Amino acid sequence: MTLAQALARAIARGLDRLDAHLLLSHVLQRPRAWLIAHDGDVLPPDAAATYVALCDRRAAGEPLAYLVGEREFHGLSLQVGPAVLIPRPDTETLVDWAVALLTGALADRPAPEVVDLGTGSGAIALAVKHRHPAARVTAVDLSDAALAMAASNAARLGLAVTFHPGSWWQALPGAARFDLVLSNPPYIAGEDPHLPALRHEPMLALTPGGDGLDAIRTIVAGAPAHLQPGGWLLLEHGWDQADAVAALLQRAGFLNVTTRHDLADRPRCTGGCWPA
Length: 276
Known about the structure:
This protein is an alpha/beta fold. It has helices spanning 3-12, 17-28, 32-37, 45-59, 64-68, 92-102, 123-131, 144-157, 214-222, 242-252; strands at residues 70-73, 76-79, 113-117, 136-141, 161-165, 178-183, 227-236, 255-261, 267-273. Strand 6, helix 9 (214-222) and strand 7 form a beta-alpha-beta unit. It is elongated.
C-alpha cells in the first residue's frame, strides 16, 4: 500500500482529509509536504498497521489531538492526553485579554502575580508566561494527572510556572494574593445535549453539573480574599452565560465588569477589577 492509497482509504471511510494527512504525518514523523512529494512510496507494514488503528480510533470519534498527543495553543505546542481538556482557540481570547491587562492596566506592577485556576494542560498559564515573562505565574488543578502533564509541558517549553494540586482556592496558601486571576473552569450545564459528543474528554473539566455555573460561583466567591487591590479576575464561560457571570461579579463587588467575544463573535470571557 502506497502513501496515496493509505490516505485514499482513510478518506473513503469518512475521515476528514486533513485528519487523514495529520495522522499519517504523525505515524511517519514527516511533514505534510513530504507526504505529498512521496505519495508513491510504499508504507512499511508496521506503519500501515499503526495508521489503520489510529484511523479506526478517529472514525470512532476520538479527538485528533489525543491521537497525535499534541495541540497548538497561542503559538505553543502542548502535549495533551485524555487526562486534560483539549485547548480550544476560544480560550485564546482569555490569554489575549490577560496580556492586554499585564501590558496596560497592570503595567505598573513589575512582577505581577498571576494564577490559573484549573490549568489542565497548562495552556493558559504557559501562554501568559510565554507572552509576559516578567509575570510570576502559578497554576492549580485538582487532577494529579493533569498537573503532571502541565508540569511536563512547562519543563519542555522552558517556562517557569509554579504548580499546586487541589481544588480552586483551597490549593493555595491562605495568604496568597494575586494581581490577575484567570480560569477556564467547567461550565457546561449537566443536561447540555453537546456533552455526549465530548465523551472522550474528562467530564471533570467540562461540567460541574446543574446549570454549569457552580465552579464559577466558587471562584468568584473566593476571589476577594486572594486579589490585590486593583487586581483582575477573568473567566471563560459558555456563549449564553455572559449575563449570569457578569451579575455574579457585580454582586461580589467587582468594578468595570466587561465581556469579550471570541473569534466567532460569541460572548466568551467576562471579567472585572477588584476595587483599589
